[in-house]
Recover the amino acids of this structure.
């Protein structure tokens, strides 16, 4: 017979002396009238104690058998979570979502011969940090690299006239026609370069990066990214005069 069945049988058998013990206790508590009439109680104190002892032994035996069964079969597997439980758990503790499509990045980004060597160097750099600092270090390192990449790409594609407009917006909010004056001045000085580059395209570039924000009423304001880009220029020693057009 399996150990689990023996444990169950011991639990069931414990009910018999346990029930008798409860019955005997009740009888003894209500035996005074019967004793006064010279009648013998239906049970005795010794019988109750023996029943209690037997019930305890059987319960302890069942507990021992249950422990033995657990050790024999190992730790039981966790119950599979139902879909409803999974949804409820996610609602209580929602996992953070990434604003960057990492899978798309790995599929479309360049991976050349330097990939393996660079990964090895990055791994060595991370492992050189204390273990408790590595996660924060990696996050800070990647974030700084992303910001530098974005600003450097902007620097390589932005026009001097756009930088001048951005510098003025850093001082105050301008109306759309005031921003356009920077485009018109550059288009007049370099007509061959602005012939196929309209003001809407010039203005959309600043909005799409985004370096500026256009409000209702044709008012234009610099964004946090625009301010940060100007700080990046100062950090790198870049000036508007270093860009043409």
């Amino acid at each position: 017979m399996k150990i689990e069945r023996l444990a169950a049988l011991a639990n069931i058998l414990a009910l018999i002396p346990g029930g008798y013990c409860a019955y005997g206790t009740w009888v003894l508590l209500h035996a005074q009238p019967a004793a006064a009439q010279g009648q013998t109680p239906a049970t005795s104190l010794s019988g109750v104690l023996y029943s209690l002892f037997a019930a305890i032994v059987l319960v302890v035996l069942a507990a021992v058998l249950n422990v033995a069964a657990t050790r024999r079969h190992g730790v039981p597997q966790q119950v599979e979570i139902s879909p409803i439980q999974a949804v409820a758990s996610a609602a209580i503790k929602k996992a953070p979502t990434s604003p960057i499509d990492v899978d798309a990045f790995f599929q479309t980004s360049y991976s050349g011969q330097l990939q393996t060597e660079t990964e090895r160097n990055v791994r060595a750099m991370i492992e050189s940090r204390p273990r408790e600092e590595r996660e924060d270090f990696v996050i800070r390192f990647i974030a700084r690299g992303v910001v530098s990449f974005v600003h450097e790409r902007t620097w390589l594609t932005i026009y001097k006239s756009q930088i001048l407009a951005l510098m003025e917006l850093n001082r105050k909010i301008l109306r759309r026609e005031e921003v356009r004056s920077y485009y018109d001045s550059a288009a007049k000085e370099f007509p061959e370069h602005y012939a196929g580059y309209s003001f809407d395209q010039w203005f959309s570039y600043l909005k799409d990066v985004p370096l500026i924000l256009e409000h209702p009423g044709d008012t234009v304001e610099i964004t946090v990214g625009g301010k940060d880009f100007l700080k990046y220029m100062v950090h790198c020693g870049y000036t508007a005069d270093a860009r043409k057009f």
